[in-house]
């Protein structure tokens, strides 16, 4: 039993293998949050709450003159706005009388076998999970709330969501509905988040919590390049291998908000959920609003352990479908090879080379439809440009299949160009505020996916293409931020629903797609990694990590991404040198070393490769296939940080049985008369012996971990090494 309820003390304890989460119902049915940390056995931590007169902190009316009972001080499970807790709140309700307060108190609970699911929204799944539902009510208004908890004991993961139900007789507006609050009875914590921009996503940033609100979020309609919803809190001295840390993420692909602060009594609070800006949801009597799900992982052993837990949880309980387990094809994408400038013959020439080199799938990127010969036009016209291809889609795909390659296709279903047939027919389908010209981004407009008819129509066009040929992979792109949000299908008082309804429309489309084409491999994309989130991973097991394919810049991007997301989710390709984004020259092998830390492929004109490069590709493809399991299913270790001035950026993959280890390092700084570069491995069996593949050299696990690996003196800039160690003797 992972969910325990002590009836006498009214204490809920959610237990996983190594963590515990505790709540308690106290007087007047107030639900406190007491703890999230190392696993606890039978206890009630409410003795840690110091009841004393807290001065200018108000008290609920029922307590009368008991000035020690204050919501301004108590750690709370789901803090409500307007009733005396002035820290970041989770829920705001505008009541039928216009007042803006809600006071949720405990009413009942139920425990269910299996993990709850959320209708129309992505969520962690698993029969081995357990569900706790705590029902709360506002006794004055009748508003109801269900707090939903999913506990995966083995995986060390807890999920949370909330369902707000209008139990009043009138119409209410949900003005804020977050998914998670974590209160700590301590303040000595750092906050880590991952910021960025297009072509430089998920940069690591760490700062101490202070007596102020530190907040991140996105208002772009996507989780965004600029901030990622995965955030961490940790002890001040925590690092890769030691210290307490908490990782939380939102299973959501739209605008989000996360805020951390230290309060007047030196207690920390973290809240997270759907962005409350531009959000206001109308609920008629009996109607409910479901928040997206948040997921939480705790470790007392530092960031590496936290990441491993998160990676496993995402892989085992979020990613679905055939391509979760099956080895994904190594692909060649034509984008950086040709951009819009291709013909069917050119694609076939690339495919021929791909086949010869052992690559398994050709992905046709942007430009195959309508009048899409540049990014100024064509979006929305999902009819194959047979003139450009020189054939139908089926004929092209059949030829590619005939060579022994799979075929994949790029789409951007959520967009419309003004210069398109679709726009001529349905200008009102684009998101725009009436009377304003609005913003364009990459010269395109966003379709109103909050409207069912719009989603249905686009879906039909895309499904027609998918039905017309043997298309086994889809890259689903999204290349601008949403602005001027407005839907012609909703009345003025419901415009605050558009952003979330948009995301629900997107999820409905994606779910229909994975149900109708269960064998299809989906890769998410948003100008690279602008929608790299758990919501998308529920549908697409991999996401194009960044439009920056420069191997050296990718070191940081992939380092930051690895904190919260499994390696298998990271789309990563070998591209041309000099690189098209940075113009940097890097060795061919280094580009492969970096791209292999993900779902691997190539994105360059294979027809232009030299014989030497071709033989390298053949070897890399074989190598990736050989190491696929350890890369995709092993534990990932960040061995050095690209931020801390190390001369080499190094990482490794260790199989769960510790029998295999793939170690990778890239030199980022050259030095005359160089110091020895030694990198210590992690996660091996100390007493076991490991042979370095391709040599007769044998090392003990302890030598490799406590002594380290000595890197050769680099012979060129950005040189890299991949060392594969295999255990030869049991411990
Ligand atoms: C942005 C993507 O990230 C690129 O890989 C490519 O697909 C382009 N869009 C195509 O327009």
Computed Rg: 27 Å
Would you identify the CATH architecture of the largest domain?
Answer: Distorted Sandwich
Tell me, what is the CATH class of the largest domain? Mainly Beta
State the fourth-level CATH superfamily of the largest domain. alpha-galactosidase from lactobacil brevis
Could you give the count of β-strands? 38
Stated plainly, the CATH topology of the largest domain is called Beta-galactosidase, Chain A, domain 5
Number of alpha- plus pi-helical segments:
14
Low-pLDDT parts are none
Mean pLDDT: 98
Helix content: 10-25%
N-to-C span: 34 Å
Sheet having the most strands: 10 strands, antiparallel
**What compounds sit in this structure?**
(2R,3S,4R,5S)-2-(hydroxymethyl)piperidine-3,4,5-triol
What's the structural domain tally? 3
What is the 3D shape? globular
Overall structural class, as computed from helix and strand content, comes to alpha+beta
Beta-strand share of residues: 25-35%
Explained architecture:
- The protein is built from 14 helices and 38 strands.
- It is α+β, with helices and mostly antiparallel strands and 731 residues long.
- It has 3 domains: 3-312, Distorted Sandwich (Beta-galactosidase, Chain A, domain 5); 322-544, Aldolase class I (TIM Barrel); 648-728, Immunoglobulin-like (Sandwich).
- Strands 6, 7, 8, 9, 11, 12, 14, 15, 19 and 20 form a 10-stranded antiparallel β-sheet that branches. An 8-stranded parallel β-barrel has the order 21-22-23-26-27-28-29-30, surrounded by 4 helices.
- It is globular and about 85 Å long.
- Bound molecules: (2R,3S,4R,5S)-2-(hydroxymethyl)piperidine-3,4,5-triol (DGJ).
- The site of (2R,3S,4R,5S)-2-(hydroxymethyl)piperidine-3,4,5-triol (DGJ) has 11 residues, from loops.
- (2R,3S,4R,5S)-2-(hydroxymethyl)piperidine-3,4,5-triol binds at residues 335, 365-366, 410, 477, 479, 525, 527-528, 544, 547.
